[in-house]
Amino acid sequence: MTVVCEYCDSVVEVTGNHNCPFCGATLRNAILSKAQRIRAEQDELEKKQKLERKEREQQEENEKILDFALSLLGGSTGRSLLRHAAKQAIKKNL
User: Fold this and answer.
1) CA dihedral for 17, 20, 23, 25, sign (positive or negative)
2) CA pair distance 58, 89, nearest whole angstrom
3) Could you give the CA distance from residue 12 to residue 21 in angstroms, rounded to a whole number?
4) Model-level pTM greater than 0.85?
5) What's the CA gap between 32 and 42, in Å, rounded?
6) What is the pLDDT along the chain (94 residues), one digit of tens a residue?
7) Are 32 and 50 in contact (CB under 8 A)?
8) Which of 22, 54, 76, 92 could be stapled to 10 by a disulfide with Cβ–Cβ 3.0 to 4.6 Å?
């Protein structure tokens, strides 16, 4: 992990040593800060993926409902009108 020393502003690759090789200052705060940023980014990514998954599931459910309604309604004119109304309703809810 690469961090910036908060005392001498050197870019330091953190290995087993948690002290800056240039000024000797501890890199503890920089390491913790970087770890917290990484954790926050991972959490944000997981939230985004969960939201996208929910949206896909909702879209699939809407399509199933539309297909079911279309199967109940006979004739191409009725289906066309129902499909248009359903799409408008879905767009309005999103």
Assistant:
1) negative
2) 13
3) 8
4) no
5) 15
6) 889 999 999 999 887 778 898 999 999 998 888 889 999 999 999 999 999 999 999 999 988 887 777 777 665 666 677 777 777 777 776 5
7) no
8) 22
